[in-house]
């Protein structure tokens, strides 16, 4: 039920000889725990024995699996990976563990300090490969920082800023509106002479507007400006908001492998949502841009959703080369909400939640079922009260998203606002059922829909939202939200349901799919699987208001809710140790301590 990205390749394709486990399922696992007979097993005894022998001979194989997700790890991470792939015989496990700890591929970054409490006292490890990859990133970015040959003439920068000011004033119909001092400084920073520039932008701080002005300045100087992001929706958002022609990182790499679309010294390459890019992938882009003599601009916020792959290179690069910061929140309309967004961005999750709780925007219900009822009822009520506004419900777990979507549709059908059934068609049209990648789903005119897979022919991206305007047995016609449009410039798309089945109801989506989105009002379902990064994203999507819902069966008190939603999920890099970044950032990020612990020790946040 978690919205996480996994490596779709088999172990064989990934060059790993350890035999994979098979999915058993929660029900079979429970039967097994109670002593019942189960035909399915996580791994066969024969496969487990072969894996144990493989690990004994090539212990670096298990390290490859760990570093698919983490650049820095501890002994517990090693033990957990071994437990997954070999049998439960204690001696076999101990032998395998000893082999891994003796591997030449293993690098100890930090010795064990048992005198320190908690996880901070544990030894930290990485691999020779990850140290080399992240070391190359550090070396390349410092060399790029020293190259001062990509500046933009001041008159072009000033003209771009003035033009953006006029655009903002025209849109807001207010002569006092315009770029903030932070945005102006960020524009001057990224258009400076360095071959690399970094901008850390809090959620809703206006980075898109800043990049739009920077693009005008770069183009006036004669540079070609290219954009990239990990997700297709983020790349599209970058292009729509800043005018920078953008593609996914995977698309860029595919082109370069075919020796197409190569960069040169007259190019500026902008990577948006940089905090979500892992070390291996970002290392390839840093190397390519440096080799081409182009300029690299990284924009993101490492406090939002964490990198999917191993490492946290965006944070490390920002600390190594310096950065401009956009911390003046412009998305929210009221001052107290702007301050709450800053709190969420600055590790002060408790303060951000308290601000919303004080204004009765936090709703604690008796159990999960009552919580779902509340979020569904409030969403539908807001839809009726503010029909021309935008809204989204969100949750971390896909099961919760599915339940919210189903509940909202049922309520709308009860109210006669959405067709139910196909015979006979009423004023609202008819409801038809379609096979999707997630099972059977019914749609009618007026339904909300979300696309779950990029499709170049249709012109849709994973996470894109829209409204159904017509249904037919072989197609669904959709009006896309916002400024989204198809390759031919249309805002409507016809889904050929026999060939494209990656869609679902879009009243609610996962928090991951909302990063970068802006709506008038949002409705957030809290769960015990969340951390401070997911909370930050979820609680900063709105212009007008956000409501947070939680069940007392999951969170016994407001304090336990706050503690859970304040947990750190921040990823480390080897550079945190080899370049002493940890001392400057404050190691509480890695301990996941509560904010009160940090404050009591007088540790300053990085």
SSE diagram, text form:
Layout: H1 26-33, H2 45-57, H3 60-66, H4 75-85, H5 90-101, E1 106-110, E2 124-127, H6 128-146, H7 154-172, H8 181-190, E3 196-201, H9 207-220, E4 224-229, H10 232-242, E5 246-248, H11 249-257, E6 267-271, H12 279-292, E7 295-300, H13 313-321, E8 324-326, H14 335-345, H15 349-358, E9 362-365, H16 368-385, E10 391-395, H17 398-414, E11 431-436, E12 439-444, E13 448-451, E14 465-472, E15 475-480, E16 492-496, E17 503-505, E18 508-510, E19 519-525, H18 532-538, E20 542-551, H19 558-565, H20 575-578, H21 581-585, H22 588-591, H23 595-601
Parallel strand pairs: 3-7, 3-8, 4-5, 4-6, 6-7, 9-20, 10-18, 10-19, 19-20
Antiparallel strand pairs: 1-2, 11-12, 13-14, 13-17, 14-15, 15-16
Give an account of the 3D structure.
With 606 residues, this protein is α/β, with parallel strands linked by helices. It has 23 helices and 20 strands. It has a six-stranded parallel β-sheet, with helices on both faces. It has a five-stranded parallel β-sheet with strand order 9-20-19-10-18. It has a five-stranded antiparallel β-sheet with strand order 16-15-14-13-17. Strand 11 and strand 12 (439-444) form a beta hairpin. The longest helix is centred in the first third of the chain and has 19 residues, at 128-146. The chain starts with 25 loop residues before the first helix and ends in a 5-residue tail after the last helix.
């Amino acid at each position: 039920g978690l919205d996480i990205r996994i490596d779709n390749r088999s172990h064989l394709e990934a060059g790993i000889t350890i035999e994979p486990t098979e999915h058993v399922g929660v029900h079979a696992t429970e039967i097994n725990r109670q002593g019942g007979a189960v035909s399915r097993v996580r791994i066969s005894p024969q496969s487990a024995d072969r894996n144990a022998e493989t690990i004994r001979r090539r212990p670096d194989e298990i390290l490859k699996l760990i570093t698919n997700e983490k650049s820095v790890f501890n002994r517990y991470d090693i033990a957990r990976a071994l437990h997954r792939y070999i049998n439960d015989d204690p001696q076999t496990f101990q032998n395998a563990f000893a082999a891994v700890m003796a591997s030449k591929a293993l690098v100890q970054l930090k010795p064990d300090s048992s005198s320190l409490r908690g996880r901070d006292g544990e030894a930290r490890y990485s691999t020779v490969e990850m140290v080399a990859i992240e070391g190359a990133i550090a070396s390349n970015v410092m060399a790029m920082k020293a190259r001062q040959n990509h500046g933009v003439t001041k008159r072009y920068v000033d003209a771009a800023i003035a033009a953006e000011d006029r655009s903002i004033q025209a849109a807001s119909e207010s002569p006092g509106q315009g770029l903030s001092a932070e945005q102006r400084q960020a524009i001057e920073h990224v258009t400076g002479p360095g071959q690399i520039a970094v901008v850390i932008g809090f959620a809703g701080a206006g980075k898109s507007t800043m990049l739009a002005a920077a693009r005008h300045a770069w183009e006036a100087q004669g540079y070609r400006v290219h954009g990239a992001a990990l997700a297709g929706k983020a790349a599209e958002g970058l292009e729509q908001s800043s005018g920078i022609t953008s593609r996914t990182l995977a698309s860029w790499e595919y082109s370069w492998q075919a020796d197409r679309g190569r960069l040169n010294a007259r190019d500026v390459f902008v990577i948006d949502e940089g905090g979500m890019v892992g070390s291996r992938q970002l290392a390839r882009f840093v190397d390519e841009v440096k080799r081409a003599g182009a300029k690299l601009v990284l924009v993101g916020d490492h406090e939002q959703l964490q990198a999917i792959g191993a490492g946290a290179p965006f944070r490390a690069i920002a600390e190594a080369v310096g950065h401009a910061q956009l911390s003046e929140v412009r998305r929210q309309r009221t001052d107290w909400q702007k301050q709450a967004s800053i709190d969420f961005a600055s590790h002060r999750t408790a303060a951000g939640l308290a601000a919303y709780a004080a204004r009765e925007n936090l709703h604690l219900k008796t159990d999960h079922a009552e919580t779902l009822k509340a979020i569904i009822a409030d969403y539908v009520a807001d839809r009726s009260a503010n029909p021309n506004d935008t809204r989204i419900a969100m949750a971390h777990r896909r099961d919760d998203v599915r339940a919210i979507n189903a509940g909202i549709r049922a309520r709308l059908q009860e109210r006669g606002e959405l067709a139910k059934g196909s015979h006979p068609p009423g004023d609202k049209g008819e409801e038809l059922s379609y096979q999707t990648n997630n099972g059977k789903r019914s749609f009618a005119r007026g339904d909300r829909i979300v696309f779950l897979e990029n499709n170049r022919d249709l012109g849709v991206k994973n996470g894109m939202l829209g409204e159904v305007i017509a249904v037919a047995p072989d197609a669904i016609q959709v009006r896309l939200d916002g400024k989204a449009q198809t390759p031919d410039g249309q805002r409507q798309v016809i889904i050929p349901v026999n060939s494209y089945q990656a869609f679902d109801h879009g009243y609610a989506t996962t928090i991951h799919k909302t990063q970068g989105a802006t709506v008038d009002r949002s409705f957030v379902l809290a769960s015990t699987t969340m951390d401070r990064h997911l909370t930050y994203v979820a609680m900063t999507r709105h212009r007008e208001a956000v409501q947070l819902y939680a069940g007392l069966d999951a969170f016994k008190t407001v304090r336990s809710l706050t503690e859970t939603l304040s947990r750190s999920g921040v990823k480390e890099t080897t550079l945190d140790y080899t370049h002493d970044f940890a001392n400057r950032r404050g190691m509480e990020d890695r301990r996941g301590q509560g904010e009160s612990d940090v404050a009591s020790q007088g540790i300053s946040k990085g």
